[in-house]
Amino acid sequence: GAYLDHNATTPPDPAVREVVADGLAAGWGNPSSVHAWGRRARSRLEEARERVAALAGCAPREVTFTGGATEANNAVLKGFAARDRGARTLLVGATEHPSVLETARYLREQGQPVAEVPADGDGRITPEALRDSLEANQPVGLVSVMWANNETGTLQPIPELAAACAEHGVPLHTDAVQAAGKAPLDFAGSGAAAMSLSAHKIGGPPGVGALVRDARRLPLDPLLHGGGHERERRAGTENLAGIAGFGKAAELARERLAGFPEHARGLRDRLEAGLRESGVAVEVVSEAAERLPNTSCLLLPGVEAETLLMNMDLAGFAVSSGSACASGSLKPSPVLLAMGIPPERARSSLRVSCGWTTSQAELEEFLEVLVPLVRRLQERTTHPA
Ligand code: PMP
């Protein structure tokens, strides 16, 4: 078997496990304390901040640690709405993660004007589509478009989208959770005003993330009120062990950017070529778009994704039907529906996402199990017994 679901979560790197364990052993302390224990904790906290900033391409003071990317996404959208009070439109991409889409839906119920920027058939949010949405929904107060999609891997042209926003003086927030460690990130050069990150997608622990933000371009009230932690941006004694683990993971992810894209692309291309050569019916979603190198979203006509997942699980393989959050329900993926893929085809989607630890041998073994299974399931639908 093999774990091929790295977009859902990644195995904690051994070096990260060591740093987290040490954070709960010798490294404990309250970073706000003035004594030696506190000073040690503070210096670990700031070291982690520097490592995350280096991966994100931002200044360390722009990093606020959060309890994951869901919190960072909620904080940006709700923080914007709390100050805007329904005056201007919140624009979100049509294929965003539920932590953006559901937050936007909630804010709309609360009276904030909200609109979606449509995606094309390959999941792209084009600068033209964004410009049209900016024109049609004036005045716009905030735009949120993800850097890379978790289900399809589609990369959005963030610098171009930020430029379109700048024409209207509107800040852009980008959920860069899936891009981190898989594609170069450059917050400063991207033109974005805010960016969300998550530790557990890059070999770090779950429940830790960051909101990167240029406070001048996107002013927000504190995420949590209380003590003055995180430069008065998010109160609460810091999750130092988790944050230190995030820092280590960010450092490793940055180092591995030299080799990871090529490694992952080799595996992905082999998977897609292997399926095509096998003769089963298969379509690669977002193939015409720029994609993350590690992500393959496949449509296997005639196959019920849930059946396939259960069979692959029995054989020891972890894959997903598009979104970990949506698995367990038979609803087709809203991301694929937003791209104009009909529900029937969307129900046949399989997401394979490789990681740093995935080997060529694992991928070959995966193909050996997958191909006959898909063939059998497709024969059953074309020639029902
Ligand atoms: N955004 C994207 C694109 C994601 O893939 C995820 C994780 N599924 C999140 C946000 C949420 O991150 P977290 O699990 O840290 O809350």
Report on the architecture of this protein.
- With 385 residues, this protein is an alpha/beta fold.
- It has 2 domains: 124 residues, Aspartate Aminotransferase, domain 1 (Alpha-Beta Complex), CATH 3.90.1150; 242 residues, 3-Layer(aba) Sandwich (Aspartate Aminotransferase, domain 2), CATH 3.40.640.10.
- It has 14 helices and 12 strands.
- A 7-stranded mixed sheet has the order 2-8-7-6-5-3-4, with helices on both faces. Strands 9-10-12 form a 3-stranded antiparallel sheet.
- The longest helix is centred in the last third of the chain and has 23 residues.
- It starts with a strand and ends with a helix.
- The model has no long low-confidence stretch (mean pLDDT 95).
- Bound molecules: 4'-deoxy-4'-aminopyridoxal-5'-phosphate.
- 4'-deoxy-4'-aminopyridoxal-5'-phosphate binds next to helix 3.
- It comes from Thiohalorhabdus denitrificans.
- InterPro entries: Aminotrans_V_dom, Cysteine_dSase, PyrdxlP-dep_Trfase, PyrdxlP-dep_Trfase_major, PyrdxlP-dep_Trfase_small.
- It catalyses: (sulfur carrier)-H + L-cysteine = (sulfur carrier)-SH + L-alanine.
- Belongs to the class-V pyridoxal-phosphate-dependent aminotransferase family. NifS/IscS subfamily.
Mean pLDDT rating: 95
Structural class: alpha/beta
List segments where confidence is low: pLDDT < 50 over at least 5 consecutive residues: none
Total number of strands: 12
Roughly how many Å apart are the termini?
A: 30 Å
Can you list the strand order of the major beta sheet?
A: 2-8-7-6-5-3-4
